[in-house]
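Example for tutorial group B:
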């Protein structure tokens, strides 16, 4: 083997050594990334906006893979969990599906409707009202014309609470102009058609809507004459 051939062999060996070194470096980087990111798990992302209180189905979500260490504890990893559930608030497209975004869709008694409204978290619920509670619903209204006195009305009596959702930050653009709460809780009721109309009217037009917890076994009958209160008439 002459000197030129020896140089060629040395260069070839050197190239092989460099290639092996580069390959080892790449493997090291990949291993380091995997060790930092960790294993991937299945999660679900909202495809398009889902309106509040609508029943959920699998077509509204898409399956994704993401590192387990980045997944929140309440993330939904199996779509069987949405069976018989409804959205608590608007589910935004692209958001990760989580258990606090959904609630059970309860069964109703004949003649009843399921109605959910947002109640001021600070003054309307105060942590005392739970599913199964019975409440009276109060609403305060401004006078119909300038100078007319404000009124407090009992809108619904003996309303059955089906579900109490999670505290939700309200979008100021979606809030009623007469209402000021920044945090609200979705409360789901089982109501007759007339009571459902009353409570949705109050949510839309009242200055405030409050819930009064009724003690079990209490007589909650309220005569019509006592359903409206004005300060000027209080003697």
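The residue assignment follows.
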């Amino acid at each position: 083997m002459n000197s030129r051939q020896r140089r060629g062999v040395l260069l070839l060996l050197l190239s092989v050594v460099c290639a092996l070194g580069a390959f080892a470096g790449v493997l090291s980087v990949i291993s380091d990334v995997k060790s930092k990111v960790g294993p991937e798990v299945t999660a679900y992302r909202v495809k398009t906006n889902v309106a509040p209180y609508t029943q959920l189905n699998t077509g509204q979500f898409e399956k994704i893979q993401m590192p387990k260490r980045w997944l929140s504890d309440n993330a939904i990893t199996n779509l069987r969990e949405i069976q018989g559930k409804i959205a608590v608030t608007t589910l935004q497209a692209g958001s990760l599906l989580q258990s606090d975004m959904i609630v059970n869709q309860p069964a109703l008694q004949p003649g009843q409707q399921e109605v959910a409204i947002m109640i001021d978290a600070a003054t309307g619920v105060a942590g005392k009202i739970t599913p199964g509670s019975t409440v009276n619903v109060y609403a305060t209204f401004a006078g119909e014309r300038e100078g007319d006195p404000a009124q407090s009305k009992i809108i619904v009596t003996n309303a059955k609470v089906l579900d109490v959702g999670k505290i939700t930050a309200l979008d100021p653009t979606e809030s009623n102009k007469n209402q000021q709460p920044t945090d609200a809780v979705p409360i789901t009721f089982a109501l007759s058609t007339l009571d459902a109309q009353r409570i949705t009217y109050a949510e839309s037009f009242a200055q405030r809507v409050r819930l009064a917890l009724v003690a079990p076994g209490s007589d909650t009958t309220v005569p019509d004459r006592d359903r409206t209160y004005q300060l000027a008439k209080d003697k």
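The two ends are 121 Å apart (CA to CA). Compare this with the pattern of hydrophobic and polar residues in the output above.
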